[in-house]
Every structure is written in structure tokens, then in C-alpha cells.
Amino acid sequence: MTSSRPTSDDLVRGDDPARLSDRRGAQLITLVFALALTVTFTLAAFVYAGAPYAVMALVTSCVAIGGWLRFGRYQVLDAPVAFNFYIGTLVALMMLYSEEWYLHYPSTLMRYFPRGYSAGVGLSEHAFIAVFPLTVSAFMTLGALAHYRGTVLGQFSAWLVFAWGGVAAIAVYLIGPLAGQPRGYVGGMLAAPVVLIVSALGIRRLVRSSRGWHA
After folding, report:
1. Cα separation of 200 and 161, whole Å?
2. Residues 6+ apart with CB under 8 A from 199
3. Mind spelling out the 3-state secondary structure of 104-151?
4. Residue 200: which of 174, 176, 166 has the closest Cα?
5. Separation CA 34–CA 23 (nearest Å)
6. How many contiguous H segments (helices) and E segments (strands) does the chain have?
7. What is the pLDDT of residues 77-96, one digit of tens each?
8. Fewest CB atoms within 10 Å of the CB: 2, 87, 98, 101?
């Protein structure tokens, strides 16, 4: 007589009804959180930092949600995936923020896209420090803790961090051409390739993990 109890392989595949229900619940909660985060951060960026940052926030959220829906695991993992790349991206982003602050990247955005800012809207260099190296990095560090535990929310946090790293890195090369400005050095161009490479490697690891590959 064969046992009707689920085996360990069944649990890994998610065939156990209770486990499957938990996964679906976690997926739904994380999706609602992600959508709420997208709306909140995009509106906050538009009202406080200006249209360029709002566009970056929206693109980041769309990439993160799309990647997570397509390649997410939707279950608690025994070990975090791409955790080293997660931390590496945070460190590389700090390098990018430092260069952008030193070379007045927020002021460059305001000068290149004056119509993207209403009266009284825009980040000073001091506000830039408060928003990105401090506040955003703090939230991403909390996401790292959730990701280290292998939670579904932590897996989405990884997609969000890698997406933001890619968008923030590419943006420094696009703002000049998009604004019709002559070619010149923009704050962040030195650190951006490092951020982009580490973020891309993190995304590659997440995708491979979803397909059962090993990096």
C-alpha cells in the first residue's frame, strides 16, 4: 500500500495543497504590495523630485514586477538567490550616488528638463543625500533581510533592486541625448557601468534559478 502523505519532492514541486495555497497567498500579497509601491513611489517622485525621477521609478517598478511575475519562485527558499549580487548592487549604487552628488546630478536633471519640474519641485544636493543614499538604501537593506530569509517578498525586493540599478545606471547616459544636449560628462558615468554589470548578473542569476539552472 502506498502512502498518501506528500513526499519531500511533492513539497518542493508545490503539489501539497496547503503549501500551494500559501504560495498563492504570498504571491497575491506581494503583487498588491508591488502595485501599491509603484503608485506611491511614482507619485512621490513626481511631486517631490520631478518628472525625470517619476519616470525612472515607474520604469523600475514595471521591470521589477514583470520580471518577478515571469521568473518568480513564489515559495520560501532554503537559501536566497543572487544574495551576493544584491549586496553588490547596493554597494555599487552607493558609489553611483556619491559620484552623482559630487558632480551635481540633480541640478543637471533640472537644467536639462526644466519642464519636468513645477515651481518648488526638485532635489537639492542635500535632499539627494537624504533620499537616495539614506532613505532608499535603508529600504533596500530591509529588503535584503527579507531576501536572505528566502521569502517571496524578498525575491521581489531582489528584482526591484536589480531593476533600479539598471535603470539608474542607464539613465545617466540617456539624459543628455533625450534632452537634446551636446555630449558631455554627466555625474555617474564612471560608476554606472559597475552598477549595470552587477545588476545584470543578479537578474541573470534570478532567471537561471527560476529555470532550475545553477550559476
Report:
1. 11
2. 85, 89, 92, 161, 162, 163, 164, 165, 166, 169
3. CHHHHHHHHCHHHCCCCCCCCHHHHHHHHHHHHHHHHHHHHHHHHCCC
4. 166
5. 16
6. 9, 0
7. 667 889 999 999 999 999 99
8. 2
